[in-house]
Amino acid sequence: MNQPETLKIVIVGHVDHGKSTLIGRLFYDTGAIPESRYAEIAATCKAQGREFEFAYLMDALEEEREQNITIDTAATFFRTATRPYVIIDAPGHKQFLKNMITGASSADAAILLVDGVEGVREQTRRHAYVLSLLGIRQVVVAVNKLDMVGYDRQRFQQVENDIRAFLHSVAIVPAHVIPISARAGENMARRLGGTPWYDGPTVLEALDTFENVRADRSLPLRLPVQDVYTWDGRRIYAGRVETGEVRRGDEVIFLPSGKITRIRSVEKWGAPALEAAGAGECIGVTTEDELFVERGEVIARRGSAPVKSRELLASIFWLADRPFRTGQSYLLKLATAEVIATAVAIEERLDSSTLEVTERQAAELLPTEVGNVRFLLKSDWACDLYGDNIRLGRFVIEAGPQIGGGGIIRSVVDEAGSA
Ligand code: GDP
Questions:
Q1: CB-based burial of residue 31 (10 Å sphere; 0-12 exposed, 13-18 middle, 19+ buried)?
Q2: What is the pTM (predicted TM-score) of this model?
Q3: Quick check: ipTM above 0.95?
Q4: 45 exposed, middle or buried (CB, 10 Å; 0-12, 13-18, 19+)?
Q5: pLDDT at 70 over 50
Q6: Distance from the alpha carbon of residue 148 to the mean position of ligand 1, in angstroms
Q7: Looking at residues 93-119, what average pLDDT do you find?
Q8: Residue limits of the Tr-type G domain (predicted)?
Q9: Average pLDDT, rounded, for the chain
Q10: Are strands 329-334 and 337-350 parallel, antiparallel or unpaired?
Q11: Ligand 1: residues whose CB is within 6 Å?
């Protein structure tokens, strides 16, 4: 029997709207945390004269994790009868945005939490916008803390209307809007009877209807060259197949150099030669003609190749402490390519909570701001529009040793000069 694939989810929402509580509750209800562990934390809370909070459970797990393993694996698992899940939200707003933008994480689906008492707030809107920008279309909204308003149906409907209206403005249609109490466990894994007026799914049932985003192998081939080796007198171009499939005998184009040749072999270190390799595999290929190309080139098929461009319009999130400015040069990294680019214009600066354009032709972006920026590149690179191919449509902006921000390619001026 095939193992069901893990669904990767992010849990987003305004601070204090109940993310940790919801995660703790999901773990508890699905038995991801042994009862003994739960009892231990309950006892500690009691000894300290505090009420039990699922959030403490999460804090305790978080601490353990930090002591034991690296940040990279700050992922947490639970499972339903249908399949395993992993929550890939790293704690903290900045970290989350950074991971999402840089592609450190890529989620199949999201739970957007809204506090039923407070209603839609700034980060609710900002996070929803990020989900939209990142193309996460499988979204379930949970209206939380309804125990605090006696599971009032009207209050729920008011919040539901507000969030639906906002999501509509960012092109997200939520699969479900669910009235919950993360603390009490209402409509999380079970119906406890607090919302007899609600006949939709629980949070777990809603998650179980989502699908894994598995477009990668069916997309056109993108094999960014990571290294070029010479071995036994042959040149081997090594890298990870980001999307699509590469097959022996394929006619391919290397971009941006534009060199065309055929794949002579597909190989894996220490293994017999392969007929083909697909998305996610780290491989080497040799070609019929010896090409003198470098790291950063992308191998693709003719007819479905990425665009070669020196000018592009991108939506960027800025995260670094110092402002992002027009006229300045930045190092952009896309897959294995690195290019120096000048920000020639911030065509629009957006208020990241309301998404309104606050300024046109702006001079700078401050931390956590969003802008539509035109870049001129010092050299060619091969890229895709984000809507066509997430992996080659997203880049990171370096700012000294740190990540300054991330960008999503909206449009390019291609070689011929047309947008
Ligand atoms: P986060 O900042 O989004 O992770 O929010 P937390 O999970 O830390 O929750 C913030 C506060 O809201 C905590 O005191 C929780 O106990 C409380 N809270 C979370 N969910 C519920 C709920 O369903 N009902 C009630 N009454 N309180 C909740």
A1: exposed
A2: 0.74
A3: yes
A4: middle
A5: no
A6: 11
A7: 77
A8: 4-216
A9: 87
A10: antiparallel
A11: 13, 15-21, 53, 55, 144-145, 147-148, 181-183
Contact 397, 323 (CB under 8 A): no
Contacts of 69 (CB under 8 A, 6+ apart): none
Ligand 1 geometric centre to CA of 182 (Å): 7
For the ranges 9-23, 54-68, 122-136, 262-276, the lowest mean pLDDT is seen at 54-68
Determine the distance separating the centroid of ligand 1 and the alpha carbon of 183, expressed in angstroms: 7
- 186: DSSP letter: B
Pocket probe for ligand 1: among 10, 14, 16, the residue whose CB has the most ligand atoms within 8 Å is 16
Residue identifier of the C-alpha nearest atom 16 of ligand 1: 53
10-60 confidence digits (pLDDT tens): 888 888 999 889 988 998 899 887 788 888 888 888 898 888 888 777 777
Are 225 and 297 contacting, i.e. CB atoms less than 8 angstroms apart? yes
288 CA to centre of ligand 1 in angstroms = 61
- Treating both helix axes as pointing N-terminal to C-terminal, what angle do 153-169 and 122-133 enclose, rounded to 10 degrees? 40
CA pair distance 167, 343, nearest whole angstrom: 30
The rounded distance, in Å, linking the Cα atoms of 98 and 399 is 13
Q: Give rounded-to-5 percent helix, strand, coil for the chain.
A: 25, 40, 40
